[in-house]
Amino acid sequence: MLGYLGPNGSGKSTTVKMLTGLLEPTTGEILFHGRPVREDVVAFKRAIGYVPEEAQLYGFLTGWEYLEMVAVMREIPPTVFERKVRAMLEAFTLYTHRDAPISSYSKGMRQRMALISATMHDPELLILDEPFTGLDVTSSIVLRQVIEKLAASGKAIFFASPAIEVIERLATHLVLLRKGRRIAAGSMAETLRQLGHDRLEDAFVQMAEETDTARTASNIVAAIQGACCSERLSDTSCGD
């Protein structure tokens, strides 16, 4: 399970777009089982599942119709589709909403629907771009456990996220980015050792523009409280 971590603008989403075929790399090569994916893009896309940060689904379709459409594109037999999707919809508490239009779904419901559509063909590689966005606490816990079980069963998980605590909890390996460049990579322990830290949060703070976060937080609080005090002093209704 590879965590792909970096501050906003470091290149996480760009990498995901290249891996999923939405963007052509300007240099370098994407390999799958040691072979360039450009040699057989169709086969590569059949082997992957992709969950974007924002689930862009067809709102005019019902949840069941959308998944049925994906199943046809994935060449999943109807009997297999019905068995799998019923179980997955029930597990994600979406079965009672299967015949409602997706336009009526909440953000969390759409994200869960995207997760089902990305995994129902049992992909070899699962690419997740901030998959916990919009999920409630229960669904987040379930998804985390699903990811862990898939990784334990031999699936490859590529997990792009700015959330340090999630990456630290789930990832076995790590790539740290800064301004489009890889600054450290390896197992979690190896990566931290390369950066000279024991905690991922400390390494990330050093990496993210080398900002003194404690001082920044103090300055913000001081500005807030200073503004409030000024407003109180200039407000004749504040008392003495």
Give a quick summary of the entry.
The protein is α/β, with parallel strands linked by helices and about 240 residues long.
Report the major sheet: 6 strands, mixed
**CATH-wise, what's the superfamily of the largest domain?**
P-loop containing nucleotide triphosphate hydrolases
Number of helices in the DSSP assignment: 10
The secondary structure category is alpha/beta
What is the count of structural domains? 2
CATH fold name of the largest domain: Rossmann fold
Number of strands: 8
Describe the structure.
- The structure is a single chain.
- This protein is α/β, with parallel strands linked by helices and 240 residues long.
- The chain has two domains: 2-197, Rossmann fold; 210-240.
- It is 47% helix and 15% strand.
- The chain has ten helices and eight strands.
- The protein has a six-stranded mixed sheet, with helices on both faces. It has a two-stranded antiparallel ribbon with strand order 2-3.
- The longest helix has 22 residues, at 213-234.
- The model has no long low-confidence stretch (mean pLDDT 84).
